[in-house]
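Sequence of RRM domain-containing protein (Theileria orientalis strain Shintoku).
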Amino acid sequence: MGRLVVYVSGLPKDTSLAEVAEVFKKAGLIKIDPLTTLPKIKLYTDENGDLKSDGTVTFVNKESVEFALRYLDNYHFRENCVIHVEPAKFEPRSNQQNKPVPASVKSELRKKYLAAKYEEERLKSWSDNLDDGTGRRIVISKPMFSMEDAMEIKKYVEVEKVTPIARHPQGVVCIKFKNSLDAEVFISKFNNRLFDGRSLEVYFFDGKTDLQAQAFPSRTAKKPEPEPDLKKDDDFKRDWIEEQSSDEEFEIRTE
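Predicted 3D structure, token representation.
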């Protein structure tokens, strides 16, 4: 179980379970606590019951843990509030005694665990069937004014494709991710981040804006062909016809 739990520190002291869940669901499905049927998130408190700015989050899949460690460590939880995420470490409790559990309590616990398991499966099925349209996998990042800038992205995240929009005045780059979750985390991680001395603006592509149309025209673009002068063309045809022999000069041939 320990491999599915991350330890979080640096949380605001007025945070809530719902706020923490909203952030960490970016990494994947959070396990359901069978006793509360809520996401299994624990916020530690002091002897007065006040939050201590740390806690744990338990996921369903180990891939989510890896994702959280990679993308949510040093994450801006709020403005001027950066959290830290690391693998949770557990130590056995001292003088812990295993007390017998009554059959009635066991039965009730079993029902709660089954209910929690059912809720996890329902959420997993729902998330697997989400419409992951291309628009939710394509992210716009700007300003990046060179191919070298655009390719730098691949050093930080795994992407399917990076496409700089040639001659765009704002240095726009389109980034295609494997899924919408990767794209969402990239946005939360890199929006307003300084890159080569410039503050990045990162957001989902709306699927409608014609980015190529916003680009400056190429200097090597071909000049448009001049439209034909219809008046001159008509004059030419009329002169040509008048120069031809009339039908009277020819005899219709019959077999």
